[in-house]
C-alpha cells in the first residue's frame, strides 16, 4: 500500500454496524422481486432509524421476511441501491470479489483480444454493483461513483478488484451530482489517483488495432466513450472512398475509424479546440496505417449546427455524416427539448449529406426512448424531403449489458438517405404532427454528461 493510498484511506468513514431497516410499498416490493436495483425514497413506508451514506439498508417484505439488502444514501431520490436479494448474505470484501469476478468473466472475449486494451469491466446496476462503474485503459483502472453510498466501501472494492484484475494504477472519478456534495466525500476528489504512480501524461490504448490517447483524470466520462467502440468499427466498414463528416467529434474516435476504413477525407467538428487538438494527435498516432496516412483530415471548431450551416452555404457535401451528440435529457422534463435538439442536428446533417449518402446518428440519453428517437430522426428526414432506408439499429456492446429498462441509454441509427421525389399524403399526415424544433445550441460530443 502506497503513501498516497494511506492518506485517503485515513479519511474514509467506517461502515455503521447497525443497518437501516425498511419496509416499502407493495408496488416497490413487487418491482424488487422482479430484479429492479433501486428503491426510491417515495416508496419507503416505514424506516426504523437513519443512517449515513454507505450504511447497509435491509428491506423486509410485508410478512417481515428478508427481501433485499443494499447501499443507503439519505440524500438521494434513489434511497437504496440493491446488492443482494432473497437470501441474507454478508456484504464483505469476499462478496465484492465474487461479484467483480463474475463481471470480469463476462468480458473474457474482450480481454483475449490483444488489439483492444480498453473496455468496461463493471457496468453498475447491470453487473449487480449499482452506482459503480469500472473501466480499463491498458494497465489503469478508472472507478467512477454515481452515488456517495460507495464512499465507505472504496477500500474493500479496491482490494477485491486488485485480487481479481491486478492493475498498476487506480483512478477515481465522481459524477457531477456527487461532486456537489463535498461533505460526503471525506476529502476524495474527482481525478484522484487512489493507488499507483501519478498520471503525468495521457494513457495510450488500442481499439481494434487503432491507437488513441486517453485522459482518465480530466476526460469526459472516464476518459473515452467505450460504449461507441462497435459503432466506430461499423463506421470504419462504411467509409471506403467516402468523404466523412464527424459531428461532435470529441477526440476523433469516429474520425480515425473512418480514415482507417479508407475515407479519402475526414472533417471533425466540435466546439472544443482542446478536444480537436487531441483528435489531430489521435489521427497522427495512426499514420502508420496506410489508409489513415492517405486520408485528408480537417478540424472545424464551433457549435455543431452553426458549422453545418456554413458548410451548407458553401455547397459542401459529404458521403457519410456521423452525429454523436451529448445527452440532451437529464430528466423526463427535458425529453421534449432533447427530441427537438436531435431533430435540429439531424436536419443540419442531412443538409450537407450527398444524395444516397449514409447518415449515422446516435443518442446517449436514457430518458429518450429508442422508439421516440428513431421516430424523431425519420420524421425530421421526411420534413426535410428525405427518405431514410435503414441499414442498422444498434444498441449496447458486450461490455455495457442492460438488465433493467432504465439502464438502456445508447441507440444508433444507420441509414442511406435519398431525396424524396414528392410528398405523399401519408407522409404529410405524419410530419404535420411533429412540432418544429426549437433553436438549440450543441456543445462538444456528450460534453459534461454522466451517461455511463
What descriptors fit this protein?
452 residues, alpha/beta, Rossmann fold, seven-stranded mixed sheet, Archaeosine Trna-guanine Transglycosylase, Chain: A, domain 4, 3 domains, six-stranded mixed sheet, 29% helix
Structure description:
With 452 residues, the chain is α/β, with parallel strands linked by helices. It has three domains: 3-11 and 92-203, RNA methyltransferase domain (HRMD) like (Transcription Regulator spoIIAA, 2-Layer Sandwich), CATH 3.30.750; 20-85, Archaeosine Trna-guanine Transglycosylase, Chain: A, domain 4; 225-431, 3-Layer(aba) Sandwich (Rossmann fold), CATH 3.40.50. The chain has helices at residues 3-9, 26-33, 93-105, 108-111, 154-164, 176-179, 229-238, 253-260, 273-285, 290-294, 304-314, 335-350, 370-383, 425-431; strands at 20-24, 38-40, 44-47, 56-60, 66-72, 78-85, 118-123, 132-137, 140-145, 169-174, 193-195, 203-207, 210-214, 243-247, 265-270, 296-301, 318-323, 353-363, 386-394, 411-419. The protein has a seven-stranded mixed beta sheet with strand order 16-15-14-17-18-20-19, sandwiched between helices. The longest helix has 16 residues, at 335-350. The radius of gyration is 23 Å and the shape is globular.
What is the element layout, followed by pairings?
Layout: H1 3-9, E1 20-24, H2 26-33, E2 38-40, E3 44-47, E4 56-60, E5 66-72, E6 78-85, H3 93-105, H4 108-111, E7 118-123, E8 132-137, E9 140-145, H5 154-164, E10 169-174, H6 176-179, E11 193-195, E12 203-207, E13 210-214, H7 229-238, E14 243-247, H8 253-260, E15 265-270, H9 273-285, H10 290-294, E16 296-301, H11 304-314, E17 318-323, H12 335-350, E18 353-363, H13 370-383, E19 386-394, E20 411-419, H14 425-431
Parallel strand pairs: 1-4, 9-10, 14-15, 14-17, 15-16, 17-18
Antiparallel strand pairs: 1-3, 2-6, 4-5, 5-6, 7-8, 8-9, 10-11, 12-13, 18-20, 19-20
Helix pairs in contact: 3-5, 7-8, 11-12, 12-13, 13-14
